[in-house]
Amino acid sequence: MIPGFIILIAAAYLLGSIPFGLLIARAHGIDLRKIGSGNIGATNVSRALGKKWAYICFALDALKGLVPMLLAVGFGLVEKNASVGQLGLWLAVGCAAILGHVFPIYLGFRGGKGVATSMGVVMGLWPYYTLSGLIVLGVWIIAMWLWRYVSLASLLAAVLFPVILTVLICLISEWRFENLWPLYIAATGIPLLVIARHAENIKRLLEGSEPKVGGK
Fold it and tell me: Domain span at residue 100?
């Protein structure tokens, strides 16, 4: 089982490192790193190519996190009632995909912010992260509707995710902290990475210069 996880962790990192946003823009003759914020994620793709290609980029980046998580289950590496050790290794697969996106080997370890890939990981870790993630996704949609800042909605979702997971662990009797503590550690660490990657966005939000969706 452990050799299988090691192979999948390595594969998840390499998959996560594929810069789909950069490749989409390059196919249209555009260097995404010279447009807008210079980020290789879906938000910057929207600035360069419009919403359609941004949605495609977001979906592909999310799949980088979702597919390795599902493969771990499909290959029988994760059982229905996974042990603490299995949960930890399953999380390592997801974290490898996120780190691949944020620090891609193909781009000199200078990548995106990890929001879409993190969402893919969250949706793939059923039921613990998936249920929490669906609630947080609803918050993200509401925040986007109210303020039209992708960065603000993403930051709010990152902060709320470990909070929602904690509430669900307290409310659902079958979920016991002593069995799920690796999930809690990752649920705190991943959002901290996302927040750190949004340092420039936080600065612009405070200055009032962060661009809104649909704005100039």
Answer: 2-207
Task: Work out how many domains the chain is built from and give that number.
Answer: 1
DSSP string, 72-127: HHHTT-S-TT--HHHHHHHHHHHHHHHHHHHS-GGGTT-----HHHHHHHHHHSTT
Of 202, 183, 188, 194, nearest in space to 90 by CA: 183
Is residue 212 domain-resident? no
Do the Cβ atoms of 48 and 30 come closer than 8 Å?
A: yes
Question: For residue 6, is it within any domain?
Answer: yes
In a domain, 110, yes or no: yes
For 105-128, write each residue's pLDDT tens digit. 999 999 999 999 999 999 999 999
**pLDDT tens digit string along 129-172?**
999 999 999 999 999 999 999 999 999 999 999 999 999 999 99
Whether the Cβ atoms of residue 168 and residue 132 lie closer than 8 Å to each other: yes
Do the domain assignments include residue 214? Answer: no
pTM of structure: 0.94
Amino acid occupying residue 145: W
